[in-house]
Amino acid sequence: MASWEAGSILLPPKKTTRRQEASTQTSEGRICFAAVLLEVQRLKGEVQDMKRVIERPLAIRDLSAYASACEDRIALIDSGGNIVGSNDNWMAFAEQFGPVQHTGPGTNYLDVCQRASAYSQEAQEAIGGLRAVLNGKLQSFTMDYSDNSRPGARYYRMGVIPIHYKRARFVIAHADITELRLSKENSLRRVQDFARRLINTQEEERERIAREIHDDLGNRVALLSLSVRQIANRRSSDSVISLNGLSQVIDNITDLSTAMRNLAHCLHPPVLGHAGICTALKALCEQFEKAQGVEMDVEIPAELPSLPDDVGLCIFRVSQECLHNIAKHAEAESVSVVLERTQRDLRLKVADTGRGFVPWKNSTKRGLGLVSMKERVRCLKGQLKIQSAPGRGTEIRVTIPLSQRTQVIKT
To answer: Is residue 162 domain-shared with residue 204, that is, in the same domain?
Structure first.
């Protein structure tokens, strides 16, 4: 039997009523609730202490361990663009360009970008993106830029995203992407190198085919034509050979010989290597005008200083493709071809008054012509621009830098 101790006397358990039991349970509940209230008050005190710690003025040592260990340059700004904190890499980079107060905590980063935008297009882009994020127009902003202030160009990626950390509302990070950029440039250079070798191989194959057509088949056709002519000259009065038939055969053979010669010249124009791009381009325009009956306005210098072979070949092939497209698609009444050289580059313009087209819409419908032209020009670090619209003709401009090409040849 259970018993309770009261002093030194053992007393039997008292009988309790239901009302007394309920009262006891209520008292115990009040005690538990009071304990909970005390625990809540204690936790609220700890939260207040934590809040006071969080709301302290931000310093570099208060940044997260990630920001401290990160190799990127990181700064935190408030809603007004003021820098309220930065990591060591940001401060170290800032010290290289003058007093820390110019780009360190307490500085308005918008003002820093605004001052730089006076002489930097990239800074103008940066301040536009930064303001768009601060104003809520963009959720984030990213841009790549170069730094040429020190020997050896460096490339960086700037990112801006919202963040709620103490007094900061946005984080700005500048990551060094030089190795990534150089890797991409090396990959692009290898692709361009391969494309150039592919084009050179194609040209060599064309030259071989053209030489075989001209030297072998062309000579055979010429000999055949000569033999038929000799037969016609030696015919007797009672010959059954029809003079008209022989004349027709001779004409057909002559046309075949001309067509084969033109094909050989199209595959690899010998005049380009012997006389240069100016003479070759004039001959191409004259041939086009004669064959198509289109009025030609040609502005080509009598001669140009010596050009690299691949530059001259590129100009000729682009012109050839342009004229081919005009004959096939444009239905033009007149065509203009202009070739000029400046101190820095060689420029070609081919324009027509034909039907025109939408470049981005029709690029896939015009075969590999436009693609081939762009790749040829890109391999020489040049630019090809197309201006066209339905019913308004087409103008193609090609610019190939010569100063870089000269340096490459000399080395």
So the answer is: no
Here the CATH number for the domain that contains residue 285 is 3.30.565.10
Within this chain, do residues 275 and 399 fall inside the same structural domain, yes or no?
yes
Full domain range(s) for residue 147? 60-176
Which residue pairs, CB below 8 angstroms and at least 24 apart, start in 376-379? 376/199, 376/314, 376/317, 376/318, 377/314, 377/318, 378/192, 378/195, 379/192, 379/195, 379/196, 379/199, 379/310, 379/314
Q: What is the pLDDT along the chain (411 residues), one digit of tens a residue?
A: 333 233 333 334 444 454 444 444 444 444 455 555 555 565 555 545 444 433 433 333 444 555 555 678 888 899 999 998 888 888 877 776 555 446 778 888 888 888 888 888 888 888 899 999 999 999 999 998 887 776 777 888 999 999 887 888 998 988 888 888 888 777 777 777 777 777 777 777 777 777 777 777 777 777 777 777 777 676 655 555 566 667 777 777 777 777 777 777 777 777 888 889 999 999 999 989 998 999 999 999 988 888 888 899 999 999 999 998 999 889 999 999 999 999 889 999 999 999 998 886 655 454 557 877 888 898 898 999 999 989 999 999 999 998 654 433 332
Q: Show the 3-state SS of 4-71.
A: EEECCEEECCCCCCHHHHHHHHHHHHHHHHHHHHHHHHHHHHHHHHHHHHHCCCCCHHHCCHHHHHCC
Identify the CATH number of the domain in which residue 92 sits. Answer: 3.30.450.20
pTM, whole model, 2 decimals?
0.46
Looking at the 3D structure of the chain, how many domains does it have?
3
Cα separations in angstroms, 216 against 258, 263, 341 = 14, 14, 39
Indicate the pairing of strand 383-388 with strand 394-401.
Answer: antiparallel
Conformation bin of residue 177: beta by default, left when phi > 0, alpha when psi is -120 to 50: alpha
Q: Are 341 and 402 in contact (CB under 8 A)?
A: yes
Distance of CA 131 to the CA centre of its chain: 25
For residues 244 and 239, give the distance between their C-alpha atoms in angstroms, rounded to a whole number: 13
Beta-carbon count within 10 A of 18 CB: 7
